[in-house]
Specification:
single chain; 2 domains; MetI-like fold; 262 residues; mainly alpha
């Protein structure tokens, strides 16, 4: 059983290496001494520049410094959006009064893309950090609230009925049954929201910033520096992948009980 598991892991890693290697080889051939090579760098030049950017400044900071600035913005706004979204979503899913009061406003906000708020955010908060936090907050908040709401409404009514027969009050049912049952839904929302928040910070930094992953791309465009643009894009992709893997790992640890019963 363990051997089969290790074999599957090995095959997945081997397949990933082969596919990435094949892509890099095709890229190298396509850009080596061709017209395409005049428009964009080859993989060897780009990888070399990417490594160099880890110890050489691009603007004020190295690539690591720019990524850390973007991550700090995401984590602060994502945390605030997560806390408020979980509380509001579960409250709307369980308490009819909360649903009646807050859901109409939430349903009006939910379909609006976070990027569409950037113009208003600039008018309200200026071009500083609060504008970026606000836009990222909205990206995380709308997704997490929806999932928390769906999780609270998906609770098995048999469990609720049994708890009421035993004399449990609504507040006790919410704490002991509704919220724990909604946890898998909440983590699914957190997983999606962290990716949406990361994409949103890039857009916010393209509007007005002096550092960050989005700044790398927009500055590269202004300087017609294709290597810097691609470095920014690759950094965004790598960090987004790592955030997804971390969130998936946390979910697997904290929600193992929900999967074991399936």
């Amino acid at each position: 059983m363990m051997n089969n598991r290790y074999l599957r892991v090995f095959l997945k890693i081997f397949s990933a290496i082969i596919s990435i290697g094949a892509f890099l080889l095709i890229w190298h051939i396509a850009t080596n001494g061709t017209k395409l090579g005049e428009l964009m760098p080859g993989p060897i030049e780009l990888i070399s520049s990417l490594i160099k950017s880890t110890y050489t400044n691009i603007g004020k900071y190295t690539i690591i410094g720019h990524i850390l600035f973007s991550l700090s913005r995401v984590l602060i706004a994502f945390t605030v959006g997560g806390v408020i979204g979980i509380l509001l979503g579960t409250a709307m899913g369980w308490y009819k009064t909360a649903e009646a009061i807050f859901r109409p406003f939430y349903e009006m906000i939910r379909p609006i893309p976070p990027i569409a708020w950037i113009s208003l955010a600039i008018l309200w908060f200026g071009l500083g950090e609060i504008m970026k936090y606000f836009v990222i907050f909205l990206a995380a908040f709308s997704i997490i609230t929806y999932n928390a709401f769906a999780g609270a409404q998906a609770v098995d009514p048999v469990l609720i009925g049994a708890a009421k027969m035993l004399g449990a009050k609504d507040s006790r049912i919410f704490r002991s049954i509704v919220f724990p049952s909604a946890v898998p839904y909440i983590f699914a929302g957190l997983h999606t929201a962290i990716s949406a928040s990361w994409a949103t910070v890039v857009a916010a930094e393209m509007v007005r910033a002096s550092e960050g992953a989005g700044w790398l791309i927009i500055q590269g465009m202004e300087m017609n520096n294709m290597i810097q643009i691609l470095i920014g894009i690759i950094a965004i992709g790598i960090v987004g992948l790592l955030l997804s893997i971390i969130m998936r790992g946390v979910e697997a640890k904290l929600c193992a009980w929900s999967k074991s019963g399936k």
